[in-house]
Amino acid sequence: MSRTLLSGNEAIARGAYEAGLHFAAAYPGTPSTEILENISKYKEIKCEWAVNEKTSLEIAAGVSFAGGRALVAMKHVGLNVAADPLFSLSYIGATGGLVIVSADDPGLHSSQNEQDNRHYGRSAKMPVLEPSDSQEAKDFVGIALDISEQFDTPVLLRITTRIAHSKTIVELKERKEVPIKGYEKDIKKRIILPAHAKPRHYIVEKRLIDLAHFAETFPYNRIEWGSKKVGFIASGISYQYVKEVFPDASVLKISMSYPLPFGLIEQFANEVEEVYVVEENDPFIEEQIKAHGIRVKGKEIVPIVDELDPTRLSVSFDIDVPYLAPEDKPELPPRPPALCPGCPHTGVFYTLSKHKYVVTGDIGCYTLGALPPLNAMDTCVCMGASVGNAFGLEIALGDEIRKKTVAVIGDSTFFHSGITPLLDLVYNKGKTTVVVLDNRITAMTGHQENPGTGKTLMGEETKTILPEDIARACGVEHVYVVDPYNLEELEEVIPREVERDAPSVIISRRPCILLKKAERRKPLAVDAEKCIGCKLCLKLGCPAISMKDDKAVINELFCTGCTLCAQVCPKDAIPVEGGE
Amino acid sequence: MDVKSILLCGVGGQGILLASDILAGVCMEAGYDVKKSEVHGMSQRGGSVISGVRFGDKVYSPLIGKGGADILLAFEKLEAVRNIEYLKPDGFVVVNNFRIDPMPVASGTAEYPKGLIEKLKSWVENVVVIDGLSLAKTAGNPRSMNIVLLGALAKRMDIPKEVWLSVIEKRVPPKTVEINKKAFELGYAS
Hints:
The structure holds two protein chains of two kinds.
Chain A: E1 3-7, H1 8-18, E2 23-26, H2 33-39, E3 46-49, H3 53-65, E4 70-75, H4 76-81, H5 83-92, E5 98-104, H6 118-123, E6 128-129, H7 134-151, E7 155-160, H8 161-164, E8 167-171, H9 187-190, H10 194-217, E9 222-224, E10 227-235, H11 236-245, E11 249-254, E12 256-258, H12 262-271, E13 274-278, H13 284-291, H14 310-316, H15 345-354, E14 358-361, E15 379-380, H16 385-397, H17 399-402, E16 405-410, H18 411-417, H19 419-427, E17 433-438, H20 467-473, E18 478-482, H21 487-499, E19 504-509, E20 545-548, E21 551-554, H22 564-568
Parallel strand pairs in A: 2-3, 2-4, 4-5, 5-7, 6-7, 10-11, 10-13, 14-15, 14-16, 16-17, 17-19, 18-19
Antiparallel strand pairs in A: 1-8, 6-12, 9-11, 20-21
Helix pairs in contact in A: 1-2, 1-7, 3-5, 11-14, 15-21, 16-19
Chain B: E1 4-11, H1 16-29, E2 33-38, E3 48-56, E4 69-74, H2 77-82, E5 87-96, H3 103-106, H4 116-123, E6 127-130, H5 132-139, H6 145-155, H7 161-171, H8 177-189
Parallel strand pairs in B: 1-4, 4-5, 5-6
Antiparallel strand pairs in B: 1-3, 2-3
Helix pairs in contact in B: 1-7, 5-6, 5-8, 6-8
């Protein structure tokens, strides 16, 4: 048996392989992205980048209907998108094992909220497993598939950023092949008409009781006896922090946080003087235990906002952790993330900023267009929201706002959930302008293929689907493709379309500069004789440009020769070989 | 052995995550339990990056909180100062005497603070200053700066040099093995 260091995401992929998984799908999203990327390395498993999370779950459900083992992985907010099939599938159950991995993000390292998706498990009435390191992340995939098949239920495998992205030692096993059972028609189970669904609900409630019995003897719910003065109940990464900070205390480790093993919890609470529940974010376990009538403390002490670490946990229990806090520490300039040098989004945001447009934004690298010096975004709600948000502004205030409003959305986000609001906009007679920032890849999460790239996850050639064709099919008559490296063209097309009394879609097309296929040109340099230090070029927010002795300078290591700075320079102080 | 915690910090693009992967691999090869934490995502694009490695007989938390690090290995001096709260009061610092201007400094809206190394020395008894860039250039490639710093760290840890070299050999791109081994040796000797 070989041992190796794996991240939680790599371990989940390995667990899927070992457990004989047949199919996996995902839409990329930090901190879950590497799960599918790693699964795709095992050629025994069919897998795909789905267009969105809802679609991924529906396809996985089909695999399960056929008796195959399926897994979907998504970031926490992705499960909001997939919530519709999730609730139905709880009633329908699982023929082949069906596992939904939700990667939550306490601390909001790269997310818009700190939602705690264990609530989904309880709300949809399906079991929730919480691994506390990579070994468990791997093992729990197989356990979840077994539970799924044994109890005829989908299973939620809930991890957090610190599980997903921490590496710990894992023992590897071989793959165990599991045959696909085959399809059998069962409409009372799989067509959830009211007449079918009501009897299913009785079955679901009975299933929860059976699962609660199972939880009592599930070996990963376990008591580790220590001092009986204080006891801790913890799951996931919080278990590790408790063991770190309170090595002598008794600990009840919960690995299945729904349904809970109340017998085991009562036994634990009876034997220790005081019981604390330690959880990141919501008091999910704590509230269930309190509702059961067992006296515990939790959020009275443990912070509800932000992720925990051993020091934060110590401090919440009044344990002092000395650290260096020098009084003469200088104020340090931050390192805010920025659009890359040569980023194709820069020209669009520069143009939008220049016109002081109201910009409804979306989720992706381009959300960075909101930061100074571009300051070219007003809203960012969730995947696909930009289009509907802009239409709503138009509905409320009419042309007064519509003639200075633009919705911006990335190519992958457009495919994910920008198409339906565009259809709505046209159908309901809106006139809003939408800019699709098409950089030919899903960039933010590290370059995943999507329907616009002509390649599948496995690198196979496939049909390329272009946003302009979709826009026309949605009934948009004014569709234009522009080059974001050409400021003159942007300046001509964007204000013209914003003024137009009809909906228009502008596709700003250029590959992400970090892609191999992106065009990198010779780095530019500033002619210091001509530069007057006006700082207009700094308004692009390009990380390659800085000021030195009141003159602009270009870092030749960073510059990709996109020429935007040369185009904005009023003194032609940045020469371009062969013209701009 | 009691658990030791090493915090690596610097700027996206400096090879910090590869360095912490190598460090974690070295600890495992040396027979310790080991856990490593890092955060992907927004930090990649020129932002501050931190990664923690903890090793010993039995490690629970992968994450290092404030006051939790025995060693701060800083790839950039401003980042050393930024993350000083993570150091235990009796911990020590290995800092690369290297400057990368944050965006607000480059665009002239903020200044890069002066005298950072002196400040570190006034706060921490044991500060090792490494000229990573010139050593990396001597080794043959400025990008091997991360391995130079690992060499400097290795000198101050109790794991045999051969273990480090064997893990480096496995983890760096094949074409760069010789340069990186040299970079390690130069860091080790400094």
